[in-house]
Amino acid sequence: MNQVNFITNTISMNPFIKSNKLWLSLLGLAVIIVLLGFIFRPKTIDFQLSASEALTLINKPDFQVSGADLAGKQLIDIRPSELFAQGHPELSINIPVRNLLDEESIELFNRLKDSGQEAVLIGNDELQTTAPWLLLQQLGYQNIKVVKGGYDLNNNFYEPVLSSTEVMLLDTAAMKQVKVKEVKTLDIRKKMPQVVVPVRKETTSGGGC
Amino acid sequence: MERKYTILAILLIVLAFGLVVLPGKKEIRETDPRVILASITEKSRYLSADLITHRIIENDPSLMLIDLRPADQFKAFALPKALNIQPDSLLTASTLELLNQPGKDKVLYANSDLMAEKAWLICTRHSLDRIYILKGGLNEWYNTIIKPGIVSNTASTADLDLLNFRMAARQFFTGAQQTPVKTSPKKIPQKVNIVRKEPAAASGGGC
Predict the structure, then answer these.
(1) Higher pLDDT, A131 or A178
(2) Quick check: B41 contacting A, CB < 8 Å?
(3) Segment (H or E) for B46
(4) How many angstroms separate the CA atoms of A127 and A130, rounded?
């Protein structure tokens, strides 16, 4: 109690403090603002790769893992939880796409990264896993790959028939411009057989009075 | 008086420290990763082959097609008015200027939709807007528009209209003569001989 009184008296009696009250108040306010800003700063997830580094990932060849080669890897099923509940790969954990950057997910990814363990994203198909994979790569999780193909509703891994989905399948010869006479578009509905409904004549009851 | 300046100097140092602590502003405006993740879960970025075809035929001025395939494949065939941009040159100044054009829907495509998906993500990180993907890529477009389909007898009017549109589009792109729509084999309606029954009872009449 005496100490508090001593400090109060010192402050009120100190001529320096007395003559610079305004400046000191401003200084105190600035310190408080900076401290609050630091404490309540938004938690951001930053890109660890620059944009040009991210661009090189587009053509990265070894980002896929075969469904038969998943031993020792942490499997992360990114399908919706309803599908996961219907069936999922053994030892896999479910993190739906929308939850991939939740705090718990980030903690898991950090743990896997620190321990050097490889993780594999599993989805319905490659299209579902590609964008999340590329995003996580840019956030610095280079240990994450995706399964080739996907996981189907029969609880099996499948791989696409083609070695790469970026193979051109169209017949370019058929696409050559050939000028032909204008052809009317067909409307097959017009050629539908008409249904004839026979109209029966009512039999007359015949004569009678 | 000098002390006042000292306090003012300390005040400025504190504020400067605050600027150091606050997150720095990046030169390029980048989308927050969480916002990108939310965009990934939305499927509105995919445009169907039918919709793109319709817009090509209509000569829609707001449509900009970006072909991401290698130059030799682009030369062999590309969608009308498409621009060939290699994925590794997506972030060059000239490409960014092109992709930043206001009022244009930039539709990315390759043979499938995987390459376009990756390119879309890079563009989204760069806060480029109105970037879309041709669903299924050029292979699916070919299978949908160029390859004739088969319609069942029970097809709805909407299905038939869609098929007729695709037939016309096929003609637009290939110049090929239109073949009639294939329908699954159906039974020829049998002629039914209507046998009129003679009146059972003689008219008779009379009392």
Answers:
(1) A131
(2) yes
(3) strand B46-47
(4) 5
Burial class (CB within 10 angstroms; exposed 0-12, middle 13-18, buried 19+) of B28:
exposed
Q: Is B90 on the interface with A (CB under 8 A)?
A: yes
* Contact between A169 and B142 using a beta-carbon 8 Å cutoff: yes
Contacts of residue B126 in chain A, CB cutoff 8 Å? 51
In this predicted complex, what is the ipTM? 0.73
> In this model, does residue A159 exceed pLDDT 90?
no
For residue B204, the chain A residues in CB contact (below 8 A) are 206-208
Query: What CA–CA distance (Å, rounded) separates A121 from A144?
Result: 7
C-alpha span between B111 and A172 (Å, rounded): 13
Mean pLDDT across chain B: 84
Kindly list the residues from chain B whose CB atom is less than 8 angstroms away from the CB atom of residue A209. 206-207
Q: Rounded distance, CA A32 to CA B1, Å?
A: 25
* Contacts with B, A 123-152, CB within 8 Å: 126-127, 130-132, 134-135, 138-139
Rg of chain B, C-alpha, whole Å? 32
**CATH architecture of the domain covering B33-143:** 3-Layer(aba) Sandwich (3.40)
Name the minimum distance, in Å, from the CA of A94 to any CA of chain B. 16
Closest CB to A55 among B90, B167, B180: B90
Which amino acid, one-letter code, is at A94?
N
pLDDT value for A42: 67
Q: Is B49 left (phi over 0), alpha (psi -120 to 50) or beta?
A: alpha
**Rounded Cα gap, residues B78 and B128, in angstroms:** 24
Does the pLDDT at position A10 exceed 90? no
**DSSP bridge partners of A144:** A119
